[in-house]
Amino acid sequence: MTWTAWLLIGAALVFFMQCGFAMVETGFTRAKNTGNILFKNFVDFCIGCVCFLFLGFGLMMGVDYVAGFIGVPNLDIFGCFETLFHGDPASADYAAATSTAASFVFNLVFCATAATIVSGAMAERTRFLAYCIYSAMISLVVYPIEAGWVWNSQGWLMNLGVGFVDFAGSAAIHTVGGTASLIGIIFVGARIGKFERDENGKVIKVNVIQGHNMTIGALGVLILWFGWYGFNGAAATEEGQLARIFVTTTIAPSVALLVTMIYTWIRNKKPDLVMSMNATLAGLVGITAGCSNLDIIGALVVGVVSGFLVMGGTWLLEQKLHLDDCVGAVPVHFLNGVWGTIAVGFFDVNNGLFYSGNAELFGIQTLGLVTIVAWTAVCMTIFFAAIKYIPVMVKYKTVKPAEVFAYAKTWNGLRCNPEEELVGLDISEHGLSSSYPDFVPSVPSYDGEGEDVDISAVKPVAIDLAPANETKYTKVTIITAQEKFLTLKDAMAKIGVTGMTVSNVMGCGTQAGKIGQYRGVKTTMRLIPKVQVEIVVSTVDPKLVVAVAQKVLDDGKYGAGKIFVTGIENVMRVRTGETGVAALTNEPEPVATK
Predict the structure, then answer these.
(1) Reported CATH class of domain 473-584
(2) N or C: which end of the chain has fewer CB within 10 A?
(3) How many angstroms separate the CA atoms of 273 and 260, rounded?
(4) What 3-state class would DSSP assign to 528?
(5) Distance between CA atoms of residues 208 and 12, nearest Å
(6) Strands 70-71 and 65-66: what pairing?
(7) Residues with Cβ < 8 Å from 209, sequence gap 6 or more?
(8) Is residue 427 a contact partner of residue 34, using CB atoms and an 8 Å limit?
(9) Which residues of the chain have pLDDT under 70?
(10) Is-contact 460 541, C-beta < 8 A?
């Protein structure tokens, strides 16, 4: 096998990582957004392919490279095919054409990796069109220019002193994707229900919004690890180097996972699966820059630090900065991309500070990293601001900053409307009722906070109840849309309802469901995912329960829900045998005795 053939096999492994990213993002988010996430992982590669073909590849790897900073756009890849079809296989031109074609595919899949990192961070609330525009921008301009600095033979970072070392892309790919993710989640804002705020807007609680399928998430992590052997190893030029790369690419993620597993086990009394899976990816990101230049000791250190970085970074992002990163892209890719790049300055076996005593490489790594982060941050700030605010200017016909920012709080080009976000992007963006139609309904996680509804002026409604001598308790059954549940739950708590039973159900009223589409064909969804809430009350006025439920659920649209009121003869608490009101009253947890 020639090394060009191995390069192309490695490129295929990197392409397969798109599947891994899709699975991780899908598993770590809610089922109602599955189709949207899968579609984004298709479209960012396909948009990136066309953009990279016509402009990005020339900017990155062009032979005519201006002052070490940017290539002159060209369409040499088209000319290569003329040579590959009709040229002499033994000629130098044919060999050059083969190299150019292989280089295009190889660099394209790396470009796609940088682009797709953002998908998971901004998931569940970003407009599909906005993501398409972002994919074009990062593939046209952001990635090709900075990657050329690192990997074009004329790039200024490659030729600076002993040379900037980023063998497979901790800086050029993962730090870029992580930086874009950080800028993106700042612009798009947090998902509804992620943070609870007081009347002054201060965050008082961070809610967990759980992913819906850890099986798919774990499969994605393992696919990414498998593909990473091609990611790091494809550019190897001899067998010994390839063997070194495979060893370090195995050690770092293994150590990172163990560090995270042990730490969370000690701290939380149970090992954390999701954090440990992210630690695996963090170790892979951390070793990517120095996979060919670090020895086993260096790989071990990279893995240990990566494990702690992903945990600390996640805590910092959510608990202190109050930024919502659905899958942990910023801790995994940004923080560990930075760490992996800096680690080369310490542990490079030839020029690292701890091996040579010379700080030159460390300085070059730091300078290159700062430059790449600054370039990406400036570009993505401009692009995300344009995507978010230009549609507002057009729609409301204003360019006054105060007015634009005010309008953008309720509608903008980057983020979906609250109604669209709550029902899920599968249906609101793609008309897809469920990504699991033959399995279970697409249901949300109910951890979080709903919309705050003022119920202080609500009066009990007139409803006919059974005579008092026939029933002592009342059951109120509420069937409504899933996205209304959090608000309903909070409102019930305000009036003293302390318990409820919640079920996911399917159903529709006289409106006979909504109209969706699948493969371009309209489908009538006779059964719509709903939530059924059962509340049995004795001391709380059931008329007030009904009134509050109506206040919360009534939005003037079809499908707001139904409320059923029935009498209950009696109730018993199974553990104690208590009946009546005592069985419905909250009691303290029993104290364990030795």
Answers:
(1) alpha beta
(2) C
(3) 9
(4) strand
(5) 36
(6) antiparallel
(7) 30, 191, 193, 194, 326, 445, 447, 448
(8) no
(9) 1, 437-452, 463-472, 508-527, 586-594
(10) yes
Q: Phi first, then psi: what are they for 498, rounded to 5°?
A: -105, -5
Q: Which two tokens stand for residue 60?
A: 């990155």
* Domain ranges (residues) in the chain: 3-387, 473-584
CATH superfamily of the 3-387 domain: Ammonium transporter AmtB like domains (1.10.3430.10)
3-387 and 473-584 have identical folds: no
Q: pLDDT per residue over 386-435, tens digit each?
A: 999 999 999 999 999 999 999 999 999 999 999 899 989 999 999 887 78
Q: What are phi and psi of 579, to 5 degrees?
A: -125, 170
Residues 6+ apart with CB under 8 A from 211: 27, 28, 29, 30, 217, 274
CA distance 278 to 562: 42
**Per-residue DSSP letter, 455:** -
Neighbours of 467 (CB within 10 A): 7
* pLDDT, tens only, 188-242: 999 999 999 998 989 999 998 999 999 999 999 999 999 999 999 999 999 999 9
From CA 273, how far away is CA 32, in angstroms rounded? Answer: 22
Distance CA 362, CA 343 (A): 8
d(CA 48, CA 452): 41
The residue among 329, 308, 251 whose CA lies nearest residue 284 is 251
